[in-house]
Request: fold
Amino acid sequence: MTSPVIPPSTPAPPTPKGPSGWLYALIGCLAVLLIGIVAAVLVVVFVWHPWQRDGHPPPPTQTTTVEEGSGKIEGTTEVTTTTAPASSLSIEAGNTPAGGAAYKLFAESGEVVASGTIPATLEIPADARYKLVAGKTGYRSWEDWQTIGAAGSSQSVSVKLEELPPEMVTVIVCTATGRRGNQWCPITVRRDFRRGDEPGTCAVHKAPPNQVGVKVCTVSGKRANRYCPTVVTKAFAANRVPGYCTVHRPPPPPPQSGVVKTICLDSGKLATRNCKRTGQKTFAVSDVPAFCTACRPPPPGKPKATVRICDGSGMRAGRYCVSTHTVRMDADAIPANCTMHTEPPNKESTDAGQYKWCPECNARNRVNARVCRKCSHRF
Reply:
């Protein structure tokens, strides 16, 4: 019996190598998730506007300074637009000092609605309450709340300024800190203080980081110099400060028709201290003469000496001259010594031990005498 023949077995095909299906599915899910996040961000930024109800970005704020005439008021103005019905408000000068004074009109929210100088006429939203502030250098600040009526109405307000006493001074104060306001304080008002009691400068509001405050000319936009008529303070990066203004320069010197000089009447040139005869004369600036060289100082005189002269002989006094006087004369004219008054004769030996003889008047004194009894000569 024969065994069946088993055909040779066929080898199985090799299994392909590579990423499995679950990996491709994961990559697809991540891609869909990323696309959804990007779409959501775009909707929030360009369509929804969650930071404002009306669907517009928030308005910027800017610090304004009103400086008209000699008054100055500062505040923060919200740049907004309104379509509310308006009414007319007339601001008039109630007394003479109020004319030309600076004013600001604040809303109840603190924003500046209008500013300028008195008198003025404004068109402002109706059915609202506003605060009118007026100020002028040397006068007390004036404030009053005004309630505007219905749309289309017209009303006026009269501003009266009171002159400050000499011991008072008006200072611009930061409303947040109560200190003297600087250019970075958002809202400032004018307050009156007694001289010497003014507050220090506000240190809370400062320039933005890496920026400095620079006074800028309002005409040229460059850094202001001492001749610029109006300036404002702006913040610049430390490496972006503009150059100095070249539009405003020092005024030219007034034309000079001539200058008055003191001249020597003998030589006609500028006088010196040695000139005896002097006078005034006008010269053109380019024709001023040189100094006089003809008048020279006098030569030095002969040396002087103080000499004591004898009244009896007129010669130079000696120690035995009774009466003398002092004169000042040329050193080479001093007379010879007096020979009229000489040393007194010697006394007897018995007298020499008992008396002291005066060399000036030859008077006899006691042996222990310190002053002559006759001429007061001191021994």
